[in-house]
Amino acid sequence: MKIVVALGGNALASGKASHLEVIKNLRKVTPFLCSLIKEGHQIVIVHGSGPQAGALLLQAELAKKKVPAMPLDVLDAEVQGQLGYLIEQVLLNELNKLKLKKHVVTVITRILVDKKDLAFRNPSKPVGPFYTAAQARALMKKCVVYKEDAGRGWRRVVASPLPKKIIELETINQLVKEGIVTIAAGGGGIPVVKNRNTFVGVEAVVDKDLAASLLAHDIAADLLLIITGIDRVYLNFRKRNQCGLKRIHLKEAKKYLSQGHFAEGSMAPKISAAISFLEKGGKKVIITDEGHASAAMLGKVGTTIIK
User: Fold this and answer.
1) What is the CATH number of the domain that holds 183?
2) How far is residue 192 CA from its own chain's centroid?
3) Neighbouring residues of 137: CB distance < 8 A, sequence distance ≥ 6
């Protein structure tokens, strides 16, 4: 079976997003990934990068008087290399322990977006450190948009356009065909637009789950497995009438999404990614956390979405 595994950025690290924390969390999920490989499944790993990208933006802000700041698309590439390396290292070490011979490689992946996407007119994706209102007003004079983030302070916001095409798709397909475990579209990939015959990076962030959904479709994956911070999808999440969903159909997923059951920036993009994958011909989506992933593959826990 061909499986795209989408690892949430917050599942890899939170807080200061140190490399030691990432390694510690990766060691929790790599036994499961190894079990998939041992069973003969072809896997492609897509990872989030929210905490890590935020840390790089903060570094750039603190060091801007001494080191030239890099644009967001370059930071996206840095994060892909950084986390790709750590995933490769931890996964290969675990495979070696099990005496499983397998190649693992990271593909620095660009994602084509539409420069006319309405998201560019209304930036909404928070990135980087928090600021006071006064600091944000001063920074907005530089034509950068800042908005208040859930009462915690002001943060820079950028566009989150829909992914249209994976530029490195042919390479990824060839690697998968050769049985190589591939890490791709990390952090949602590097968003680029096309000006005539030239690709240009843009200050934006592509949602990781939507990028994983597109990749799963394009490589004809059998399963999109989204590993996040909770064991399953819930209606009325964290309310007294909270209800966990075990197995639902595409039609139900669309209904619950339209009814506003899922928070933007949290579960809503995951459900949207699941809907997109299934509508384009995908067979199954599973949403769960790393501790329940093995049982979720057997349908015992987690949320399974089918047509």
Assistant:
1) 3.40.1160.10
2) 17
3) none
Nearest Cα neighbor of 157 from 204, 111, 208 is: 204
Q: Answer yes or no: 270 catalytic.
A: yes
Angle between helices 72-97 and 19-38 (to 10 degrees): 50
To the query of whether residue 16 is one of the catalytic residues in this protein, the response is no
User: Using CA atoms, how far apart are residues 253 and 235, in angstroms rounded to an integer?
Assistant: 11
C-alpha 188/C-alpha 9 separation (Å) is: 11
CB 112 within 8 A of CB 164: yes
Q: pLDDT digits over 188-218, tens only?
A: 999 999 998 899 999 899 999 999 999 999 9
Looking at the 3D structure of the chain, how many domains does it have?
A: 1
Query: Is 189 noted as a catalytic residue in this protein?
Result: no
Average pLDDT estimate for 219-238:
94
Catalytic residue at 9? Answer: yes
Catalytic residue among 8, 54, 208, 284: 208
Domain that holds residue 278: 2-113+167-306
Is position 140 within any domain?
no
Catalytic hit among 54, 270, 282, 302 = 270
Is residue 179 flagged as an active site residue? no
250 domain residue, yes or no? yes
pLDDT cut 70: percent of the chain above it: 94
Q: Which residue of the set 25, 50, 84, 125 is catalytic?
A: 125
pLDDT, the chain, mean: 90
Q: Which of 10, 102, 153, 291 is catalytic?
A: 10
pTM equals 0.91
Asked if 80 and 109 touch (Cβ cutoff 8 Å), the reply is: yes
pLDDT at residue 14, rounded to an integer: 61
Q: What is the pLDDT of residues 84-111, one digit of tens each?
A: 999 999 999 999 999 999 999 999 999 9
